[in-house]
Amino acid sequence: MRLRAEYRIGPELKFLANLDMMNVIGRTLRRAAIPYALSEGFNPHIKLSLGTVLPVGLWGEKEYFDLELTMPVETASFIVAMNNAFPSAITIKNCIPIDNRTPSLMKVINSASYTFKLCSGGINLDSWREEFLSRKSLVVKSRGKKKDLDKDLRPGIFRIDVNNSQDFDIINMWVSSGETINVRYDELNDILMATGIDKQNIQDVYRSGNYIKHGAEFFSPLEQVN
Question: Which residues pair with 177 in a beta bridge?
């Protein structure tokens, strides 16, 4: 049996690295007495795979993992057992059984959304959004493997929503996270600075979702699994 789970990792653990997260989930599976499957060989490991790596320094609202089990488990029981054993900053929000032929998260997730929380009143975000999306190119220095090469983020920025309020302002950005163009959050940070957002006004940044993009629509990996 395979399960796909959606979980939240709060800001208290935003400096947890990907390998550390794998270890936390592994220890939680043992504490919760979940019948997880192990790989074969001299160094067996839990058959667990995460979605796209959550960058160190960010927390995540909708993260995902796939898990193989040795026997069937009710999803509701799995959620309760795991949440009772997890640290308080991690919560499984939903879970579904998936077919053994279902492609891995790394193969199907091709976009993500990042949320920037700003001090209120710093800039007219509606005007900023209109000007931002009207640009044909948005070039930054790459922060990935090919560091310092010019990288045009514009083809990989799909959608932007903004919200002004009395307490704080919000910028939500839906971007590509695939192999064709992978838009990193720190590159988004750079392009925000270059288009008029004051770095000092950014109070928080987090990944608000991971998605499977088909055409103009964005699906949760729990909704679109085939």
Answer: 182
CA dist., res. 73 & res. 1, Å (int): 8
**pLDDT tens digit at each of 226 positions of the chain:** 999 999 999 999 999 999 999 999 999 999 999 999 999 888 899 999 999 999 999 999 999 999 999 999 999 999 999 999 999 999 999 999 999 899 999 999 999 999 999 988 778 899 999 999 999 999 998 887 777 789 999 999 999 999 887 789 999 999 999 777 899 999 999 999 999 999 899 999 999 999 999 998 999 999 865 5
Query: Would the pTM of this model clear 0.70, i.e. be above it?
Result: yes
**Which residues neighbour 174 within 8 Å (Cβ) at sequence distance 6 or greater?**
111, 112, 113, 157, 158, 159, 160, 211, 218
- Which of the listed CATH numbers 3.30.70.580, 3.10.20.70, 3.40.605.10, 1.20.1260.10 matches domain 2-101? 3.30.70.580
